[in-house]
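Exercise 7.
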Amino acid sequence: MTSLEARPDSRHQALIAYYEQAGPDAAAWSSALSMHFGYYRFGFNPFRRERMLDEMNRQVIERLRLNADRRDLIVDLGCGVGATVRRAAWLFPRKQILGINVVPWQVERGNAWTRHVELHERARLELADYTCTGLASGSVDGAIAIESACHAEGPAKEAFVREAARILKPGGRLVVADAFRKHAGRPLGFVSARLHGALCRSFVLSELAQVEDFRDALVRHGFADVTVEDISWRVAPSALHAPVAVLWFGLTKLLRGESLGEQRLNNLRGSVVSALLGANRFQFGYYLLSATKSGRGQTGVRPGSDRGQTGVRPGSDRGQTRVRPGSDGARPSV
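Solution. The predicted structure, written as tokens, is:
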């Protein structure tokens, strides 16, 4: 496979600069360099952040519905330093796990770590753009993205969804965990708009995705069995760690006489702003979206189903919405 160079546009270069400078500080958040929020389950100690971070990895991988005996190819689109790649390789020894990332130091660090834990024969990271991966069409059995799809352009993250649809085999699964805006078409209030702008500037985003627009993009690009799960309350315990963790990190650096620099300050600012935005449950939420790539000739509507029918799976978290492919209206109840 030929890795692609990062696009030369200014936002892409700013993104690389952000992760090159602030990314190494992730060790203060997670010893495994899990660069995302966690998933809380009943019985977990909410003060043990690492367990919640690893549980998010497990929850995302579980929704791929993998057969442990098959020799599949699984791709992490925007893999960071590869924590989820290594977790998937540990869980499924017969599969090949590929992480895609545009940040050179993360790819180098991740591959070095993978070799250190002797997973390099079936898990690796490559320098590539997840909107133009260079992978053959229909060559991937499952794809995941944890807090990386947000870096694509637009409210629907169309380029990300299009490439995921292209590389997945019919029947392959896509699972995305990320923060989203709610209620497409409703403008943000003054304070929320200012905070959203500050978040995007800090984390090098064009904008957060709209959950309804992203869901519709999945259907538009041939995904079926689209499920939208609002897991905001599952994420909240780990999200509350962020302001304390980053402020403690910043204070420690200053007491040591170290310069924080522009990107470190952006990371500190963005972490605090994300907690503030998360408190606005009416306009923002954290979601798990999963979907299956439709097969050839599949219409997208299951036999006997009503067009646009939605429902909640028994025993699911409140806020989970099942979208039947091909529906036009039926927005998620978020």
